[in-house]
Amino acid sequence: MSDTEWFEPKVEEAWWHGLARRFLALGPIPRHIAFIMDGNRRYARKQKCSSFVDGHLKGFAQLMSVLEWCRQFEVKEVTVYALSLENFNRRETEVEDLLKLFERKLIQLLNKLFCHSECMYRIYSSG
């Protein structure tokens, strides 16, 4: 993994990403950005995925791409809303699968973050 990338495998970028980067570099960069992880099950259904987990995996990959942008643009604070109480109203097996996936991906994210010793990170959990 190169010093300029946090996460592997690298998500292939769309044609407009370079244009968006140049545009963003023109103005002030926000100090804090928040993301709400929503719509992964709808995405999985629309794409006719074999499991809703596939939608969550795609959402996580997209989040990693966005976090890389935040790092490149030196955004100081990032908030990610990943689970809501509504998630726990689903079938028990779906909740279990979602929590296992969340734990696995959170560990993956933390391992990658702490490999970058040049940056300081604070992780907060709420709820």
UniProtKB/TrEMBL annotation:
State a single Pfam family of this protein. Prenyltransf
Q: Which Gene3D superfamilies match?
A: Decaprenyl diphosphate synthase-like (3.40.1180.10)
Catalytic activity, EC:
2.5.1.87
* Keywords from the UniProt entry: Transferase
A GO molecular-function descriptor: ditrans,polycis-polyprenyl diphosphate synthase [(2E,6E)-farnesyl diphosphate specific] activity
Task: State the GO CC annotations.
Answer: dehydrodolichyl diphosphate synthase complex; endoplasmic reticulum
Q: Which reaction does it catalyse?
A: n isopentenyl diphosphate + (2E,6E)-farnesyl diphosphate = a di-trans,poly-cis-polyprenyl diphosphate + n diphosphate
Q: What is the annotated signal peptide range for this record?
A: none
GO terms for biological process? polyprenol biosynthetic process
Protein family = Belongs to the UPP synthase family.
What name does the UniProt record give this protein? ditrans,polycis-polyprenyl diphosphate synthase [(2E,6E)-farnesyldiphosphate specific]
What is the source species? Gongylonema pulchrum
